[in-house]
Amino acid sequence: MMLSKAIEGQTYILINIGSDPHFMRRAGSMGLVPNTEIRVIRNQTKMPILLFARDTLIAVNQKDAAEIEVEANV
Amino acid sequence: MYKIALLGQPNSGKSTLFNALTGSHQHVGNWPGKTVERCEGSYKYQGEAISVVDLPGSYSLTADSEEEKITRDFITQGDADLILVMADSSQLSRSLYMLADFSKLNAPATLILNMEDVAKAQGKQVNSALLEKRLGIPVISFVAADLKRYDKLKSVIHSALSSPPRLKVEKCGDGQELSWIAEILSGVVNESQKPYTLGKFDRLATGRISGKIIACAAMLLAFACSMIVAMPLMGIGGMIPQIFTPLLQNAMDALNVHSFLAGIISVLIPNTIYFAFSMSGFVFGVNFVFAFLEDIGYIARVAYVFDGIMSKLGVQGKSICPMIMGFGCTIGGAAGARVIDNYGQRLLTIALTWAVPCAAIWSVIPVLAAYFFGFGSIFVVLGILAYMMLMIFVISKVFGKRLSPAQTRTGLIMELPPYHKPHWKSILYIAWIRAIDIFIRALKTIFLISLIVYLLTFSLSGNVENSLLYHIGTFIEPVTKFFGMGWQTFMAFIASAFAKEAVLGVLNAVFAGQGSLIAGTFEAKSFGVDSSILAAVMPTVISKAEALAFMFAVSFNVPCVMALSTTYRETHSLKWTLRLALFFTGGALILSCIIYHIAEILL
Question: I need a labelling partner for A20 at 20 to 30 A (CA). Which of B214, B341, B509, B527 fits?
């Protein structure tokens, strides 16, 4: 599934960080690479998604979140 | 002289460290030929001067942006004797990213694990000795905002400089940064895991609507607080002309000094000092409040809630702060733009803030509008607000491409640091240094421009018609008429670039014959204007169309001298300050021209 559809409070594993190399590098420098565990803190309409990963609260735009593939972590 | 450089991601506390380390010994400029800020400073340790370069903020060294290219080149060219790499102790597994990238370049380094206090509060213990042994370079746990810790840091730097330490560990492979970090960190961080939850306040502060309301309220509060902090300084400054102008005037009269020189001594100098005083007082207040909001971690929330709207203008969500501040005072807006960590976007934010009419304009325009339009003046005010929106849009289009190229726009992904207690001492220290700095520089700028205005408005007899400005104004009136302004309103328009309050003072001198042009220009701010006669006289001389054109021209003219001076100080670019000033003056004249000719037909 895509990160933009993620549910608040759930944990996910990042599978794929989209296709734009610039965005991938930025996401990487923020600690977001494939296989990273993230927890979705907040997902409101028309607002960047708030997620928690590697001890950091990170905001990701909805547009970019729609390109990020995640998998529910059970 | 030894040279050290600071390297770290945004929010790593790099600028706090730089400010505390170098204090008032700073030179801020631009990297040659680039719209990227270069901060250099120095400090002394055991009699030896050490120069410090703050490398432009970036997330990595991949050379994605101009900032990253500069930083990368600086390190690879070996321009520094030691690089201080900053990381955040409370989130090491992420914030060592810069070190991982840096390991590819092989330069002498020391690692600073900042925000030890935050990490402790979160129950994290960092074994810096183990990390030091593993990396082969000095590793120091630190709190950049705690001024007491700098002696120790300086001594660590000093010994590192005498035998430059280099990383012992293997270079990090491309794309392997995070696993490289994980390996380095194994067994280093000891933490009691607590699942992260959003606090009650943070839930509101990051809400789509509640977050915006809180942010706007916080900015209004910030403005009020800045005023309260600044009030004592402004009060003292305000007393200078009120006490000294009459005294000096009497002394000059008694000594029979020529009125030209007497005016400079009794009016110009006290008012210049007053302006510089109130300006630096306000800058102090704004810096204090903004540094506080940034230190506790709130500004990042504003950036988050306003990112959607502001990124359309090419600036960060944070840019809303200086712009709201601009309704109070453009000086505050320009000074507050410091919260924007990217130089180009900061410049763009200041340009946008210029388009927001300040409180002085809001105090003048409704008064004038009421003379001419009575209750209709509400539409003038609404019209100005609407045009402000248009102006903001136009500026973002005209300057956005240059100042904020698409790839440096940072809204796509950002960090929201945890809240923490303010470090009062470092906040006060930084605000104080900036206020002193701007006071000295402002004195020069304001005096120079005041002198020009003084020469233009001086008249031997005290009569407006003997001033240079009158002669110029009446001579070029055929031209200014085309732009919708007669010589009287054009004089007031010119004066409005000096101080917005001067508009009423100058009009009063011109129409009501009350006081000289000099008094109207310089003293409107400190003594106020009694405009009762103006209300009766002005509408009989000036047409409604001209009045309307004039009010718009004044509202969107260049901001006052003090705001210009602050802009120059904050951007340290004369070229950009002048470019913006020309754009605004030209824009105001064109606007006035259009409004005048349309209003002529309609009104």
Answer: B341
**How near does any CA of chain A get to the CA of B297, in Å?**
12
The CATH number, out of the four listed (3.40.50.300, 3.40.1180.10, 1.10.357.140, 3.30.1330.30), of the domain defined by the range B2-191: 3.40.50.300
- Residue B418 has φ and ψ, to the nearest 5°, of -70, 150
The tokens describing B451, both together, are: 């002198």
Sketch the domain layout of chain B as residue ranges.
2-191, 436-602
If pLDDT is split at 50, 70 and 90, which confidence band does B408 have? low
**Under a CB-based contact definition with an 8 Å cutoff, are residues B65 and B407 in contact?**
yes
8 Å CB contact of B198 and A42? yes
Nearest to B334 by CA among B503, B580, B499, B54: B580
Which of A13, A29, A36 should one mutate to test binding to chain B, selecting the residue with the greatest count of B CBs within 10 A? Answer: A29
pLDDT at B152 over 90: yes
B124 three-class SS = strand
Average pLDDT score over residue span B443-460: 85
Percent of chain B surpassing pLDDT 90: 48
Taking the domain A3-72, which CATH number applies?
2.30.30.90
- Does A31 contact B94 at a Cβ distance shorter than 8 Å? yes
Q: Where are the alpha helices (DSSP H) in B264-358?
A: 269-295, 299-311, 320-328, 330-336, 343-354
Q: How many CA atoms lie within 13 A of B577 on its CB side?
A: 18
Q: How far apart, in whole angstroms, are the C-alpha atoms of residue A52 and residue A56? A: 6
| Cα separations in angstroms, B509 against B401, B530, B536, B580 | 44, 11, 14, 30
Q: Does B411 have pLDDT greater than 60?
A: no
List the one residue out of A48, A16, A25 whose CA is nearest residue B307: A48
Write out the two tokens for B36.
């990227």
Residue B184 predicted with pLDDT over 80: yes
For chain A, the structural domain boundaries read 3-72
Q: How far apart are CA A54 and CA A31, in angstroms?
A: 7
Distance to chain A for B137, nearest Cα, Å: 22
Q: How far does CA A53 lie from the centroid of its chain?
A: 9
ipTM of predicted complex: 0.94
Residue pairs between chains A and B whose CB atoms are closer than 8 Å: 99
Tell me B268's DSSP state.
I
Kindly determine whether residue B407 and residue A56, on different chains, have CB atoms separated by under 8 Å: no
